[in-house]
Specification:
Length: 740
């Protein structure tokens, strides 16, 4: 990770400035009687277990009234110790990082010295955020620091040579925001409202959109790398707090995402549409992960199935929906003197004067879920009305049907199928109402647990492969689709549903790879996903074998995918036809009260509604984007890729198992090649790249403890050793747990 050279050097001094800064750091270390500048110094600290004492001295020193020279010296020392993950953990534990934020927001009374102090503080924070010792530290720094960094943005957008400082400032914010997506999983509760408010995301969104709105007023145009960082920040703001974008005056935020989706860049078009999707999904900060198309966390798991152990532990603490021993309907049965002896009383219902075993409608619904409707009229609502006289039934009736199948030993599979389908339908209804975030999260979690358990218990049955991929995206989904389609019991209905979910997954992975990936071939891989999707959609629409919902969604997907890839850019007649067909499909799905892909449909509707207005509002930005050499080069790259389809197909196949390089949880962007690092030659002798790394977590430190038996594995602490021991090292090396 490199910093702009202009940020490393003052505007009015040469490289000797940093030599002078080193002297400041040495003076501070002598005053405190500590040494942290060489690998030998760090080893001595670890050997004597004096890390906590060293940090205590620095914390106490940071609270004094210090001249600017000593503050700069302390910042340089902080940079040194945070390069060692064990010492960094101690520094964050004692809140030494607060000193950096105090320096960023202090005013010395002299403009030049304030600038120098802030410059050193930015450099320190940039290095610190590039390698946190753990994600919880990142959460803490993001919550207490994002708003302070936001307030600095105006100071780096006025007259003068401010571009590199602005890039670093926004890059720091872009590094802090993504890891918050793991907050609920790590802390086992949603981001607290006071923590969300402390981020001041509406102010951040307003500041960033303001920079883009004033391109003509700035003394110098924004650089491409800075613009990209702004877009990435806005994407994550929409992910956590969509209202921060939607509440911007004149609808600037939503129109900006639509304008990006119309831009001359494939990557930016995907970024813009990802922003529209985030605006229409339930906010992560309130709802956690409740199943969403184009979820950035899909890039985490590679081909591994996500772990549901935390969900199981959490769900175990929730009260189950009560199963009444004698419900109202059962009492009616008893009053009429019929069927007094049911094996499970609440599974015997009463309708229109007649007793009704819940297993009758339950069996019909389970078969409907597995095999699909036998004609155009058969549906869940049709079954409900037939058996219960109403399309609305209560929770007791739902669970009575599930339990009625569980009472029959040969119907356990169908009971699990019905249970999952009920949970998903309740989840979709709750998401549409958006009234109770906790209920939505609990329904989602229970459905995920049931899908995982169903797949474990019924690995040769197609349904739970479908259940695993429904409403989710990720590399592992490609494998699940193939395995599900190969199951001997797969019905035509499930085939179509799994292929539909596979198309949604291709769309998700294509958009995410283009928007968030920093690997070597993001355009090739992301464009490849979307082009494969276009071919598959064309075949599906031509065959016309899918169900009503899947056919209509294929038409919608065809439209939006083409708008991203530009594959029909020169065929205006076809583009216009597909637009009109997409509009009709959206209307038909709404009339049918379909709950399928609500957020995707809403995002497409936003795009269609504002595609004329957005370019008028953001015309100067689109013109500027079109002039960037990076975007022109991207267009040439795409043209070259399309000229070699066979070679590209081979490349994608060879790279299928490559896990995507993603922007979370650490850096979140590729460093511009034009920016060269001069940092290492100027400050200290400790290079994180040369430090030994923990065998488990890969963090660098000179204080690692060796495995007592093999002497090869090294660990930060007992926790890292235990994790590695349990996940495979035990089989490689029989050794007692090390003491630290």
């Amino acid at each position: 990770m490199a910093l702009p050279s202009s940020l490393m050097n003052s505007r009015d001094v040469d490289d000797n400035e940093w030599i002078y800064a080193d002297e400041m750091a040495e003076n501070v270390s002598k005053k405190l009687n500590i040494a942290v500048f060489t690998p030998r110094d760090l080893k001595r600290i670890h050997k004597t277990n004096s890390g906590a004492e060293v940090v205590r001295k620095l914390v106490a020193f940071s609270h004094r009234r210090l001249p600017i020279q000593e503050r700069i010296g302390l910042l340089i020392i902080l940079r040194q110790i945070t390069r060692d993950s064990i010492l960094a953990q101690e520094a964050y534990k004692q809140k030494l990082d607060d000193f950096v934020f105090r320096c960023l927001n202090s005013f010395t009374g002299i403009r030049e010295s304030t600038f120098e102090l802030r410059r050193h503080a930015l450099v320190a924070l940039f290095e610190m955020t590039s390698s946190f010792p753990d994600v919880m530290v990142c959460h803490s720094v993001a919550i207490k620091g994002t708003a302070q960094l936001t307030r600095l943005i105006p100071k780096y957008s006025g007259p003068g040579d401010w571009h590199d400082g602005l890039w670093v400032l926004i890059s720091i914010i872009a590094t802090l925001l993504p890891p918050l997506s793991s907050y609920k999983d790590i802390h086992e509760h949603s981001l607290p409202s006071n923590a969300l408010q402390s981020l001041e995301l509406p102010n951040l969104a307003d500041a960033l959109v303001g920079l883009l709105s004033k391109l003509d007023d700035l003394s110098m145009p924004l650089k491409f790398d800075t613009v990209i960082m702004i877009f990435k920040c806005l994407i994550w703001i929409a992910y956590y707090d969509s209202n921060a974008i939607l509440s911007l005056s004149d609808n600037r935020g939503l129109l900006l995402f639509v304008a990006l989706a119309l831009s001359p860049s494939l990557i930016l078009r995907s970024t813009g549409f990802l922003g529209l999707l985030h605006l229409r999904h339930p906010d992560y900060s309130h709802y956690g992960h409740v199943g969403r198309i184009c979820d950035p966390l899909s890039l985490y798991s590679g081909f591994l199935l996500p772990d549901v152990t935390p969900y199981v532990d959490e769900a175990a603490e929730w009260p189950e929906t009560p199963r009444p021993k004698h419900g109202v309907l059962t009492k009616l049965v008893e009053e009429h003197g019929v069927v007094k002896h049911a094996p499970t009383p609440h599974t015997l219902l009463y309708f229109q004067g007649y007793p009704l075993y819940a297993s009758c409608p339950a069996s019909v619904l389970a078969d409907l879920e597995i095999d699909g409707p036998s004609d155009a009229f058969q549906s869940y609502d049709f079954v409900y009305k037939t058996f219960f006289g109403s399309a609305k039934i209560d929770d007791n009736t739902w669970y009575a049907m599930v339990d009625s199948l569980r009472d029959r030993p040969h119907d356990q599979f169908r009971a699990d199928v019905l249970h999952f389908s009920i949970l998903m339908r309740k989840l979709e209804e709750e998401k549409r109402a958006a009234r109770d975030p906790e209920k939505i999260y609990q329904l989602y979690t229970r459905a995920r647990i049931l899908a995982h358990k169903g797949l474990e218990q019924w690995p040769d049955r197609a349904y739970f492969y479908y259940a695993m991929i429904k409403g989710h995206s990720g590399m592992h989904n490609f494998d699940l689709v193939v395995k599900g389609l190969l199951c001997p019991d797969v019905s035509k209905h499930l085939q179509h549903l799994m292929m539909h979910e596979g198309r949604l997954n291709l769309f998700s992975m294509g958009v995410l790879r283009l928007s968030l990936s920093v690997q070597k071939h993001p355009v090739d891989l992301g464009l490849g996903d979307l082009e494969t999707l276009e071919e598959d959609i064309a075949e599906d629409i031509e065959r016309s074998e899918s169900g009503f919902t899947e056919r209509k969604m294929s038409i919608v997907l065809r439209f939006v995918t083409e708008r991203l890839t530009g594959s029909k850019g020169s065929d205006s007649a076809t583009r216009k036809l597909w637009l009109e067909e997409a509009k009709s499909a959206l209307v038909a799905l709404k009339k049918a009260k379909s709950t399928s892909c609500l957020e995707l449909r809403a995002a497409v509707n936003d795009f269609i509604t504002f595609q004329q207005k957005a370019p008028k509002k953001w015309g100067p930005l689109l013109k500027t984007l079109g002039s960037f050499k990076e975007i022109i080069e991207e267009a040439h790259q795409i043209a070259q890729l399309r000229a070699k389809p066979a070679e590209r197909k081979s490349h994608r196949t060879n790279n299928l198992n490559d896990e995507p390089a993603i922007e979370i949880p650490r850096l979140g962007y590729a460093v511009p090649e034009a920016i060269q690092s001069r940092m290492q030659a100027k400050i200290g002798a400790v290079d994180p790249a040369t430090l030994p790394h923990c065998t488990w977590c890969d963090h660098p430190s000179l204080g690692l403890k060796k495995c007592a038996r093999c002497g090869i594995a090294k660990y930060c602490d007992k926790e890292c050793q235990q994790y590695h021991w349990k996940t495979g090292h035990k089989a490689e090396c029989v050794s007692p747990e090390i003491a630290v």
